[in-house]
């Protein structure tokens, strides 16, 4: 059936057999056996048969069918329903692509439902199968393994955002900031907000999984969720840090724009004076009065030129010293 | 009586009969029966008879009579009184129209009181009647159904606000920002604040309904309120996100205005120099000294013109390279 | 004695008699009887006799003597001491006048002490006496009635502040913002802070009165305090909303000032160019070179004038199109 | 021994005798007797003998020796160790001088250790001795008396800061704001932060003293600490209020600077036009074309002057109306 | 083996012997004996043998192998795993160098694992060995001693940051602020954020160690962790204070830049007028009208010069008084 990636039974952590959806109920009667079903954008019909096999709640199935959920953990009787969001840097436009993975976790089964652009969990499953003593802890360990891989995919995302911040910093302090800098800061903020919305509920989810109110998670598996929690908290801190720095960068950018504006005004004022003074003097000797004795002196012209020139030099030095030029 | 939209008795989730307000008490004596009364801006007299039939508290009736309550959930003995606010985008002026719906929920009755511009709940009632096995859970399920429809009406409102933000972003980064941009940002902020005031208490209400301190909600109905809660939280996140972006957009707008001001100053300074230099030179050769040898040279005029022109070109290139022009 | 407004005994909610302060103790021996004393800026002596009659704590009496307390609820053994602040819009200067009312509430007595410019509670008392079945609930109901009237007086205060905000908005977006606008925004902020300081502790007080840790409030009176609480929360929300909008208005004002500054610069630059170009050309033809062939051409003057004029027109159109003029 | 200000035994609130440090242990054997020791910047040796007499913890003694602690309350077994910070306005430079007082409070003793520029507690002790019925409540009352006096010293400090804010407001809105205004705002912020750091932990300390987890404080003394708590909260509110207003003042200052900058630009632009137009016209009639018919008209000069003058007047009126001049 | 700094057994607080990693298990069988192992960037193999000797959890060992953990306290069964970050000012570039120390603390052992540029704990160990009565309290005291030394190393770091703030303040208010000032403020913010990220979790860790939920810490050792907690809180307050002041400094810087911009504009406007007026007058008398009677008056030239000069003086005085020059 389309949408099924895998449906495998495990006994004491060891892969027993690929089984058919319809045979799940039967398989689960064996002791120490659990079933791990992997789905990818399943159709309604497939979800319906899954619902029947595992006795899932209508609302959870409805959620699992629609993507665009926020990360959450919900208990429906004996079954735990978890929504996580995945993120990857799109290698072409360097934006972040978000996907979703939903989990149904019961006493002896785990169903993962992937939506959107997330990586396959084949590798995760392979790694789990390599450590049967751990996978033997049951579906909660499989849940941990997938969550861990999802959370680990966030680190490169954050690092890309941190790199974007460094680029912006260099633009601000190294080169001249432009309109583009402001836009890049804005877009960085937007992306940080998007990732933040994904990470914050994840911390709550891990928090609940590592505490004692959720019976689906055996005691010896809790430290693993604490590990995921720890990573999520670290990602969150990196995000907050980057966000605070982006805010500071915007302020610095603003402050530098203002200083630069001030510098332009000073430079302009300085040069305007240096051009304005000779213009004024020239204007005076351009007057047409009959009786202007200086006009008739022989060296008047070079003297006036020289005086004007000296005046300009004096002005130049004065403005240079005042830091206006 | 004016103000009554509907007054129907249900038995095991199935519609039994339209009944008269005065016969409610009598009807409620039947086992597994509940009454769903729908009112629209009821008069004082009608509310009084409702109060008598269901034994409601004075203060709740007073509140139900006046619109302009904030969303809240209050327990008066056995009866739960809930106020919710509805929102719709006005199709004419694209502003948000707010309305109010109040609920009285008891063991075997639910009264909905609509105020202002909210949609009728006919469709909701019809959908409920199509799933008698769910409506059989009692008045709490009817409450859920109406709440769910109210909360779902918020999504288009938020999407309109998000679209307004996108328009503002385009104005800021694409075209030149104007005074109108600032005003639009301000109005967007105002609308976001208004919606926020409606959504935040709604989350608390859902939270209480899905936890165990409210006995009116049977255990198997709680997951439905969790679903509403989930939607409310998502709306709230979308709001917060939009609000953060509006703030960032205002800053970006501000930053760009400042950069643009700086650019104007630079351009002006550059052109002022390019016009100022020939003016100064012309002034000098406009002086009336008798002894100005250059004046008598034959090619002085074209040479001075050429020199001045070259100077202007040099200045132009200089300013161009400095990014001032 | 000066400072006593009223001292009345009630039995089962009905007024029994005006009594003397000295006879209070005696009166309170009757079953189902409580005493309601109203004081207005009482002297030390009067407070002392009140203290003796009701066995009040030194610290509470000290507080009741001095105005300028912050709103609070304190328990001294069996007696509850409450401080509330009242507010009214001064009809002359449109500022807010604050007053204070203190309450001592015991099992069978309530003392209200008014300070500063608050309204008399005569009307409240009259309304209470009209509903003896409610006043029969005891001093807690009298407390509710006065608190309710105090809180209701806040609504016009908030509405005045909201109106001031609307005026500021109109100044900002409609007319040109001036120095006065900034000052009005500042003063609005100051007033909002003042009211906020009064409302926030009020919410806590109501919260305690409607919960179960205060034994002075009988169970059937609690819903009334929840009603006051609800009003206080609404006032608080209106305040927060107005404060957020004032902040946004300040930013908008700032942004518009900056845009307006930018517009001035652009306009100035444009006109400076339009005036500068003819000045430069005129300067060139004002030079005194002997050999300037143009000077001798017959139509040179009108041609130059025309060319200059056309240049100015071209510049004008150019700047107009760029949005600089 | 240097550093001892006082060491007095009290019985039932009445002063019994000045005693020697070495005799404390012996004195404390009497029933209903407690010892109040006052130290001022004690040496290590003195602290050691105090430690031995009262059996104090090493870490507390270490803290008491070094000033520059943050306000805190710590329990070491039976003994309570409290650090408070005192504040006074320096009458010379109008800055705030901070000091410290440490307390060791046991069942039958209290030790106060003053550091830095705080007032002596002689007056407090005298006042306590005047009300032996209160001092008879034990060391906790002595603690209250000193704390109350410390907290009361904060009110003039806050009032000084509020006065500084009023001065800044007047500078901003009344006179022209200068660089000094900005610096004064900055310094006010710094001082507010300093006082805040002292007050916030004080509230926590009072809070703990008035609740039931500290056994050293008898029940009938708790209301007194609630009184101190109340004062601390009021000081804290005044601080927060002042801080919010300082922030608003900075924004207002900034906004007004920007408006003032805009006004300068407008004025300059207006006058530049009024000077620029005659300069341009004069330039035109200063051109040396042979064929300029106007030059030969007899009234050309006065006519041109008059036209220019009228133009300037027109410009002046235009700019005046536009609010640019 | 490389990576082992020390491995010493202590009995009743006294050093017994340097022992081999392989003999730890054997040694721990003695009563009242504990082992303190010091590692520095250990290899995988060494960590493996440590894990075996002390029965440590896989996840903790994995963490201990990789540096770049965030500070945390985790319990794995009987063993406590703690990560702390160390900080020092790099004496060359005045930046902060961060390192990490991990601890495994059991009933009778403590393992410290240093990563990166942190100081050796030789001195700490020496000081502990000098007070065997304290070290006799067991591994928790050794943990305290190392934590205390780590936290004490933060004080010079904070003081360096505070000094950087003072330098920035001086630049802002004393000298003219430049682009460098803005960059220094930004870098200071970055460093404050980095230290903050290290200190905040440290407070939580101390908090848990001084409360009663961690059994590894005996009761008489808790006050020591309260001491560390106290230091951490103080560092945190200093950080927050510095951060608030940096924000205020940025605003002040910004405000002063704006005022300075305004001053430049005023100065420029003033001088432009003083130069512009003579230029205009000179232009008028440079016109070539035939009939300009003034031109023929004998004293016209000196009179015009004088009038112009006086006008300039008047303008100068006017602008000086207005505060524009």
TrEMBL record, chains A, B, C, D, E:
Alphabetic keyword roster: Cell membrane, Ion transport, Magnesium, Membrane, Transmembrane, Transmembrane helix, Transport
Catalytic activity as recorded in UniProt: Mg(2+)(in) = Mg(2+)(out)
Family: Belongs to the CorA metal ion transporter (MIT) (TC 1.A.35) family.
Protein name as annotated: Magnesium transport protein CorA
PANTHER family cross-referenced by the UniProt entry: CORA FAMILY METAL ION TRANSPORTER (EUROFUNG)
GO MF term set: cobalt ion binding; cobalt ion transmembrane transporter activity; magnesium ion binding; magnesium ion transmembrane transporter activity
Membrane topology annotation: Multi-pass membrane protein
Functional summary from the UniProt entry: Mediates influx of magnesium ions. Alternates between open and closed states. Activated by low cytoplasmic Mg(2+) levels. Inactive when cytoplasmic Mg(2+) levels are high.
Subcellular location: Cell membrane; Membrane
Lineage, top ranks: Bacteria, Pseudomonadati, Bacteroidota, Chitinophagia, Chitinophagales
Organism: Segetibacter aerophilus
InterPro entries: CorA_cytoplasmic_dom, CorA_TM1_TM2, Mg/Co-transport_prot_CorA, MgTranspt_CorA/ZnTranspt_ZntB
TM ranges: 268-287, 299-319
Pfam families: CorA
One term under GO cellular component: plasma membrane
């Amino acid at each position: 059936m389309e949408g099924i990636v895998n449906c495998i039974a495990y006994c004491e952590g060891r892969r027993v057999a690929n089984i058919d959806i319809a045979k799940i109920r039967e398989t689960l009667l064996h002791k120490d056996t659990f079933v791990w079903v992997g789905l990818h954008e399943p159709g309604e019909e497939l979800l319906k048969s899954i619902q029947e096999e595992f006795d899932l709640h209508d609302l959870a199935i409805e959620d699992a069918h629609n993507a665009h959920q926020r990360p959450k953990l919900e208990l429906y009787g004996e079954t735990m329903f978890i929504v996580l969001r995945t993120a990857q840097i799109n290698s072409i436009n360097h934006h972040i692509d978000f996907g979703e993975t939903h989990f149904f976790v019961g006493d002896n089964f785990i169903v993962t439902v992937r939506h959107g652009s997330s990586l396959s969990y084949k590798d995760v499953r392979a790694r789990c199968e390599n450590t049967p003593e751990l996978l033997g802890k049951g579906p909660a360990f499989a849940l941990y393994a997938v969550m861990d891989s999802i959370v680990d995919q966030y680190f490169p995302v954050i690092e890309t955002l941190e790199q974007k911040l460094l680029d912006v910093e260099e633009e601000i302090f190294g080169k001249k900031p432009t309109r583009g800098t402001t836009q890049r800061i804005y877009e960085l903020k937007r992306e940080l907000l998007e990732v933040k919305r994904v990470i914050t509920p994840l911390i709550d989810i891990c928090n609940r999984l590592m505490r004692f109110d959720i019976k689906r998670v055996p005691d010896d598996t809790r430290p693993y969720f604490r590990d995921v929690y720890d990573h999520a908290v670290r990602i969150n801190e990196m995000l907050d840090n980057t966000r605070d720095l982006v805010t500071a960068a915007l302020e610095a950018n603003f402050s530098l724009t203002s200083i630069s504006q001030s510098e332009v005004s000073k430079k302009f004022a300085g040069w305007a004076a240096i051009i304005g003074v000779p213009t004024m003097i020239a204007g005076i000797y351009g007057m047409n009065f009959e009786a202007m004795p200086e006009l008739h002196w022989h060296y008047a012209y070079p003297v006036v030129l020289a005086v004007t020139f000296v005046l300009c030099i004096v002005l130049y030095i004065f403005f240079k010293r005042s830091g206006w030029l």
